Amino acid sequence: MPRIYKIVGDTTTGMKFRIEVVAEKPYDAIEKAYSLIGSRHKLSRMQIRIRDVVPISLEEARSEHVKILMAVDKIYKY
Predict the structure, then answer these.
(1) Is pTM, for the whole model, over 0.70?
(2) Which pLDDT band holds residue 20 (cuts at 50, 70, 90)?
(3) DSSP state of 73
(4) What is the pLDDT of residues 21-70, one digit of tens each?
(5) In three state form, how does the secondary structure of 9-70 look?
(6) Radius of gyration, CA atoms only, the chain
(7) 23, 1, 14, 5: which is closest to 63 by C-alpha?
(8) What is d(CA 37, CA 57) in angstroms, rounded to the nearest whole number?
(9) Distance between CA atoms of 27 and 14, rounded to whole angstroms?
């Protein structure tokens, strides 16, 4: 069952971030964060520092995208 994870960290360029992702395990959430931050800001993994990974409830989530994903019963890939 997927959960919502809050990931907090910073980069070597001085940017701080707080991102919410839906994942099965904390490791998957970290990989998703690396992917999102790296692609949005053209940073490599060596430039991104993950400080904290915490599972949160649906009520604590701020991201509308995450809330919609958790409301979906089934996701079909084709």
Answers:
(1) yes
(2) very high
(3) S
(4) 999 999 999 999 999 999 999 999 999 999 999 999 999 999 998 988 88
(5) EEECCCCEEEEEEEECCHHHHHHHHHHHHHHHHCCCHHHEEEEEEEEECCCCCCCHHHHHHH
(6) 13
(7) 5
(8) 23
(9) 24
Amino acid at 18: R
Burial class (CB in 10 A: 0-12, 13-18, 19+), 17: middle
Residue type at 41?
H
Contact 51, 16 (CB under 8 A): no
Residue 11: exposure state from Cβ atoms within 10 A (0-12, 13-18, ≥19): middle
Specify the residue for token string 């940073």: 43
